[in-house]
Design brief:
- The chain is an all-alpha fold and about 950 residues long.
- Among the domains are: about 100 residues, no CATH class; about 110 residues, no CATH class; about 110 residues, Tetratricopeptide repeat domain (Serine Threonine Protein Phosphatase 5, Tetratricopeptide repeat).
- The chain is about 70% helix and about 0% strand.
- Helix 24 links the parallel strand 2 and strand 3.
């Protein structure tokens, strides 16, 4: 008996040892799975999968994470029988491929084995939801909440399914406090139970993203990625976040990484479709959805909603708004969705949201309402409908809807911000200009509004005539300034996107324009030019039913401003042409909406305007309207180009690039291209005795601050070819640095013998002469520069300084006039021109330049005084009084507007008013002699 007992003990010990080893193997395999080492996890799970259901489950998940769906299903089918977890996982796989019958069968099998299997319970609720059985779905979600309340749940996966159910139940029942419980209790508890359980971070991040809390969403997604760098779902979530931040390039990279890991991840293909949609390419979006997303799950409502939007846009504007009658494909698609689910709120919300994104407002509103009516439990449509109404200026309707949305979801950041904005808007004053509405802060922006109102009206009339279209409603222009301790730019940003950061001072949604008050902008800008730009969008967007692509409406808007390209655009154009880094009609839209850099954004505007200039080469302006007509008829860009210009898009682009190259050559006349140092090094190795290459390398070293190398190569270039101009310029720069100015001037004079001269050498020599106050010598150099580079304002600015110093008034006026016409934001040039015209008693011209100055700074008291004096001299006493009163308000201690105002009152026979003005001034400045003398004379 003792021997038999010993054998039993040994067998028991051996069994326990094997079980412990297996448990260790499973734990190690799970760590590999959670850390994203899927292939290694497969290798660890595979030997145990036939005998241990947990290993089979882990193996299937490792395979599914890499897009091996069929292999995962096969692994689960071969697992040991009788385990609810296996049936629940089979249910998940079936559900995600749209096989709801199989999913339901596996859910019931799982619950039969274990009625409390939580993954199966969650999927049961989801199956009820996608089939429109909403009451049963809510009950199923609540079943998981009841389980949590009645049990001590400690494992991470169970907490995940409970959290998902709690969040959905909270949405449907408006139990807002439960969102806090999910992110502050359930997700942290899951991580406490299993610290490397990245799905807890992922689910918390998705909740934050849903509420537009981008900072917290980003933090959670990155925490998940730190645990598992190969979590394809997290990469896609970060791509969605990048799209929210208008960064499609980041989104593209993230989605590409996700699809490398899991090519069967439907969320990734949906974001790919989002990217095509954002690039104004509905045909490509539809192709991605039909060929890649829907084969993975033919019943997925988010994919189907996107596809429905493609059908709407491809079919074009329809009088039968929202009724699906215009496109048979759309009607069939909606019928198919409703046959599966009579309450497809997600489908209709997705359809509406995509149309909203393309400014198809009437159709989007219809489908948002359909989403609300079909599935009132769903949170998203109310908030999105309210925000859309804000963008189109329907603020009263928006306020009601957003109040309702906020009651239902107080965590929605954009809704909360917009409701605060509406409180500010209610305090603003509105002026009807006749064809437009102007809204502004009556206490802060009354002077701006006085000038902006007639400008807006005048511009609207001009553009309506130019493009042959008059929008049906009155455009709304809103000017935002500081309120409630928050700056005007933040209110403007909130007005446009619901968030307090937008990298521009103005924007247009079609029916409305938002503008940051110039007084609230850190950088001065020409508000009149900006309003003309945005009003062009008002006309062209509505004229084409919002079918005009971003690049073309921006091209027309810049062209309509009426100013030359800024010098920085020309410099950028030269660099990009030389580097071969130009946008095309297929890539330029993203450069506007989601630029990689500030240079990309500027280059997009530059190239867009140049597309218009290229179109007008040898053609009349009617071609611009004809292309708008093509977009109105829902033609693509390629089709529009063929109709209007009689050529393919490819040939059109070839001609455009040739045009840009010619223009860049003119702009860079005399200045060699700046090549990268690595390219120059390769070229010089191949041709070491080339003086031009040595000089280019010397210049490249100089720009990088490598002075010794620059000096050595410049000397080498001069040795190879005496008088090499670029090398001489480099040596001159180094001589100036060493304090050898005269030596530098001699070198530069030699450089300028080459024709055309290098603009850099010309500018350096001119600046040395100017610094030495040798104006007679500096002037011809700057004039030569202005002739060589007529688009560059630097030459004119220097000439203006020279003429002011040398008191050559006629030349000064000419230089300042050219400068003002070139630079729309140059206040000082306009102000000086107004002063000079007033001195010459050219009162009409003085008023003209002063009014142009007010288009940059309406709070400049001196400009108002100039207008007032000019009006008085032309016997327009009413205008003179009004302008002097503004000048007095803006410059209360300046005697000139007070004395001028009193004088006009006297001329108008209003002596008591003159005495009042002078008396009020003497209360502010008691010792002002001129005011005292004038007041005495009036007594």
């Amino acid at each position: 008996m003792k021997l038999a007992f010993s054998k039993c003990v040994l067998l028991l010990l051996l069994f326990l040892a094997v079980a412990a080893a297996a448990a260790d193997d499973l734990a190690g395999a799970r760590k590999l799975l959670l850390s994203g080492k899927y292939a290694e996890a497969e290798d660890a799970y595979r030997p145990l999968a036939k005998k241990d259901f947990r290993a089979a489950l882990g193996l299937a998940r490792s395979q599914d994470a890499r897009g091996m769906r069929e292999a995962a299903a096969k692994t689960l089918a071969g697992a040991p029988d009788g385990h609810a977890e296996i049936e629940a996982e089979l249910a998940r796989l079936a559900f995600e491929r749209g096989d709801y019958k199989a999913a339901e069968k596996h859910v019931e099998a799982a619950r039969k084995l274990d009625h409390e299997q939580l993954q199966a319970a969650w999927l049961r609720g989801e199956l009820f939801r996608v089939s429109g059985r909403l009451e049963q779905a809510a009950a199923a979600y609540h079943e998981l909440i009841d389980f949590y309340n009645g049990h001590e749940v400690k494992d991470a996966e169970s907490l995940r399914w409970i959290g998902l159910a709690a969040a959905e139940y909270a949405r449907w029942k408006r139990l807002n406090e439960q969102f806090s419980i999910v992110v502050n209790d359930l997700c942290p508890d899951a991580l406490q139970a299993e610290p490397d359980y990245w799905p807890a971070h992922y689910e918390a991040g998705r909740l934050y993203l849903e509420k537009y809390n981008q900072a917290d969403a980003d933090r959670e997604f990155k925490a998940a990625l730190a645990e598992n760098p190969n979590a394809a779902e997290v990469l896609v979530a970060l791509a969605e976040l990048a799209l929210e931040d208008h960064d499609p390039h980041e989104a593209q990279q993230l989605v590409a990484r996700a699809l490398e890991i899991n090519p069967q991840l439907i969320d990734a293909w949906q974001v790919k479709a989002d990217l095509a949609w954002a690039n104004f390419d509905p045909a490509m979006a539809a192709k991605i959805l039909q060929e890649r997303a829907l084969p993975l799950d033919p019943l997925d409502e988010e994919s189907l909603g996107r596809l429905a939007a493609c059908y709407v846009v491809e079919h074009g504007p329809s009088g039968n708004v929202g009724q699906a009658g215009g496109d048979a494909r759309l009607k069939r698609l909606i019928d198919r969705v409703l046959a599966q689910n009579p309450h497809p709120g997600v489908f209709f919300e997705t359809l509406a949201s995509w149309l909203d994104d393309r400014n198809r407002t009437a159709e989007a509103e219809h489908w948002y309402r359909e989403a609300i009516q079909r599935m009132p439990q769903h949170l998203g449509p109310r908030a999105k409908l309210g925000l859309m109404w804000m963008r189109v200026g329907q603020e009263a309707e928006a306020h009601r809807m957003l109040e309702e949305a906020f009651r239902e979801d107080p965590f929605h950041v954009r809704v909360k911000n917009t409701l605060e904005l509406l409180d500010v808007i209610e305090t603003m004053q509105t002026v009807d200009t006749g064809h437009c509405l102007l809204r502004f802060d009556g206490s802060r922006q009354k002077h701006l509004a006085r000038y902006a109102a007639p400008h807006v009206e005048r511009v609207f009339q001009q553009l309506a005539e130019k493009f042959g279209y008059r929008p049906p409603g009155k455009p709304l222009v809103e000017i935002f300034s500081r309120a409630k301790g928050i700056g005007g730019h933040e209110w403007f940003s909130t007005r446009m996107i619901g968030l307090p950061y937008l990298g521009t001072v103005a924007a247009c949604t079609g029916p409305m324009i938002g503008l940051t008050a110039p007084s609230d902008s850190p950088v001065p800008f020409n508000w009149a030019r900006v309003l003309r730009h945005e009003m062009t969008h008002v006309v062209t967007l509505q004229q084409t039913g919002y079918n005009v692509p971003h690049w073309y409406t921006e091209a027309l808007a810049v062209w309509c401003e009426g100013y030359p390209r800024p010098p920085q655009w020309n410099e950028l154009l030269v660099r990009r042409v030389q580097a071969g880094k130009l946008f095309t009609l297929d890539t330029i839209n993203f450069a506007f909406t989601s630029p990689n850099s500030g240079d990309d954004w500027q280059m997009a505007y530059c190239q867009a305007e140049l597309y218009v200039e290229y179109m007008l080469q040898g053609r009349g302006e009617e071609v611009l309207r004809k292309l708008l007509d093509a977009y109105t008829e829902n033609l693509s860009t390629a089709e529009g180009i063929r109709r209007v210009f009689g050529m393919s898009q490819e040939k059109f682009e070839q001609g455009y690039v040739a045009y840009l190259k010619k223009l860049a050559a003119e702009l860079s006349r005399g200045q060699p291209p700046e090549r990268e140092l690595e390219e120059l090094l390769r070229a010089q190795r191949a041709d070491p005795k080339n003086a031009e290459l040595a000089a280019e390398m010397a210049d490249a070293y100089l720009r990088r601050g490598a002075l010794a190398e620059a000096r050595q190569l410049a000397a080498k270039a001069v040795g190879l070819r005496a008088g090499q101009p670029l090398a001489g310029y480099v040596l001159a720069r180094l001589a100036v640095r060493d304090g050898k100015v005269k030596e530098a001037e001699a070198m530069l004079a030699g450089c300028l013998r080459s024709q055309p001269p290098d603009p850099r050498a010309l500018e350096l020599l001119a600046s040395l002469k100017l610094k030495d106050e040798a104006y007679a010598e500096a002037e011809p150099l700057y004039e030569q520069g202005a002739t060589l580079q007529p688009h560059d304002a630097r030459w004119l600015r220097a000439l203006a300084v020279i003429y002011a110093k040398s008191k050559e008034e006629r030349k000064l006026v000419d230089a300042l006039t050219r400068l003002a016409k070139m630079d729309s934001d140059n206040l000082s040039a306009r102000k000086e021109l107004a002063r000079l015209a007033l001195q010459k008693r050219d009162y009409a011209l003085a008023s003209q330049w002063a009014n142009q100055g007010l288009e940059i700074d309406v709070s400049d008291g001196e400009l108002h005084s100039i207008i007032a004096e000019a009006a008085g001299e032309r016997h327009n006493q009413q205008e003179s009084i009004e302008e002097y009163e503004i000048a007095v308000e803006l410059s209360p201690t300046d005697p000139r507007p007070r004395l001028g105002l009193a004088d006009v009152y006297v001329q108008a026979g209003k002596t008591p008013e003159a005495r009042r003005v002078l008396g009020e001034f003497l209360k502010v400045v008691p010792d002002q002699p001129a005011a005292k003398l004038m007041l005495e004379s009036l007594k």
